């Protein structure tokens, strides 16, 4: 493995672990707070097609176990374009290449995701997936009025992120 690939792999694992901690805490709290007589699994579709790092898909899947209230399946661009999101509560885009994920989805796939979110469903973007969900590029999903502040230095490296849930985040 080259030095660059090793750094990218470590960074992807670090980002995924941070997201795992956040999603497990957030979703576990949501599931635990639900009526214990009829818990509803959160149905998560993880984008797994060109532009997504396969290892990220695997790492994220491992962070969303069934015993914590998740039903997780991968979904590809063809399935999204064919209406496959109707079977899910959340779509998650992992790291990789946002522009490649966007081109793989095509106009119809991006529209399907925009409609999915507009209908009240969730979107989680990790690394490249966050760029995809932004409003920065013509190929972006424009789900959030978020912009890239420094395009020249998008590969910022890695670091620790400390997260503390407040009372609102725990409910």
Describe the structure.
- The protein is an alpha/beta fold and 171 residues long.
- Helices cover 42% and strands 12% of the residues.
- A 4-stranded parallel β-sheet has the order 2-1-3-4, sandwiched between helices.
- The protein is globular, with a radius of gyration of 16 Å.
- The N terminus is likely disordered.
Blueprint (SSEs and pairs):
Layout lengths: L2 H31 L8 E6 L6 H9 L7 E6 L1 H5 L8 E4 L4 H21 L3 E4 L2 H6 L38
Parallel strand pairs: 1-2, 1-3, 3-4
Helix pairs in contact: 1-2
Largest sheet: 4 strands, parallel
Mean pLDDT: 80
Number of strands: 4
Note the total helix count. Answer: 5
- Overall form: globular
Secondary-structure-derived class: alpha/beta
Helical content (DSSP H or I, runs of 4+): 40-55%
């Amino acid at each position: 493995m080259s030095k660059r690939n090793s750094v990218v792999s470590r960074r992807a694992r670090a980002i995924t672990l941070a997201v795992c901690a956040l999603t497990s805490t957030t979703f576990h709290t949501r599931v635990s707070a639900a009526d214990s007589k009829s818990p509803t699994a959160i149905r998560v579709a993880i984008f797994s097609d060109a532009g997504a790092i396969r290892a990220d898909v695997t790492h994220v899947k491992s962070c969303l176990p069934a015993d914590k209230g998740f039903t997780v399946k991968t979904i590809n661009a063809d399935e999204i374009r064919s209406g496959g999101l109707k079977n899910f509560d959340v779509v998650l885009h992992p790291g990789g290449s946002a522009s490649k994920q966007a081109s793989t989805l095509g106009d119809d796939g991006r529209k399907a995701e925009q409609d999915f979110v507009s209908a009240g469903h969730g979107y989680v973007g990790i690394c490249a997936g966050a760029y995809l969900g932004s409003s920065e590029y013509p190929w972006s999903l424009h789900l959030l009025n978020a912009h890239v502040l420094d395009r020249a230095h998008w590969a910022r490296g890695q670091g620790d992120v400390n997260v503390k849930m407040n009372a609102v985040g725990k409910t």
